[in-house]
Amino acid sequence: MTIPVLSVQCGKVRSFRGADEPSAIGKRPVAGRVGVGRLGLDGDEQADLAVHGGPDKAIHHYPHDHYAYWRGEIGAHPLLDDFGAFGENVSTRGLTEDMVCIGDRWRLGTALVEVSQGRQPCWKLDHRFDGARVNAGTVRARRPGWYYRVIEEGEVAAGDLMALEQRPYPDWTVLRVFGLLIAGDHKRDRASLEALGDVAPLAEPWARRRTQLLG
Questions:
Q1: 56-76 residues labelled b (16+ CB within 10 A) or e (exposed)
Q2: CATH of the domain at 176
Q3: d(Cα 115, Cα 88) in Å, to the nearest integer?
Q4: Which among 16, 56, 83, 161 has the fewest CB atoms less than 10 Å away?
Q5: pTM score, two decimals?
Q6: In angstroms, what is the C-alpha Rg of the chain?
Q7: Quick one: pLDDT at residue 18?
Q8: What is the mean pLDDT of each run of 10 residues along the chain (215 residues)?
Q9: Residue 105: which domain range?
Q10: Closest alpha carbon to 130 in 206, 6, 17
């Protein structure tokens, strides 16, 4: 499976539209090749390192496929006219949460990255979209995007291809895991929640959440 990269985005920490907290959610497309390191893209930043960034959240991927859905949900918004509206580093079309699995290894440009977890949305999405209920809508619609850890450093640019190299856990799509850990599916599917413990590449925060939900 190969998918073209539509755009690559980076962002700097700055004042977040009048909010008390700074943020780097405002990602903008980058021209040319961008270095991919263990902690993410060269030139990209995160404000709150307790919940953003780090090796398991080095790169955020959000399907550009979902932008049409959001226009239907919240109406026209300037952020939806470009890439990076959801703070994503990588934009593609033709690859969604039901097609990507935890533990997948993708060749991203010359780098090798591994899917570590889905994105757990927060209040900053609502604030970024001028109060629209994007945070809750992301959970309800199960359109979170996902994160990568970097296995081999390299470079990536818009126009490069993403190629799937390994899929060790084909039953564990981002959609399924997000449903269990974030969207409430664990309440009626404890067996899957228990089985998720065998998925070794799952990022530690989501592994802890699984343990908490098991009670």
A1: bbbbbbbbbebbeebeeebee
A2: 2.40.33.20
A3: 14
A4: 161
A5: 0.94
A6: 16
A7: 62
A8: 97 74 87 96 79 87 98 95 96 98 98 97 87 93 98 98 98 98 97 98 97 95
A9: 2-214
A10: 17
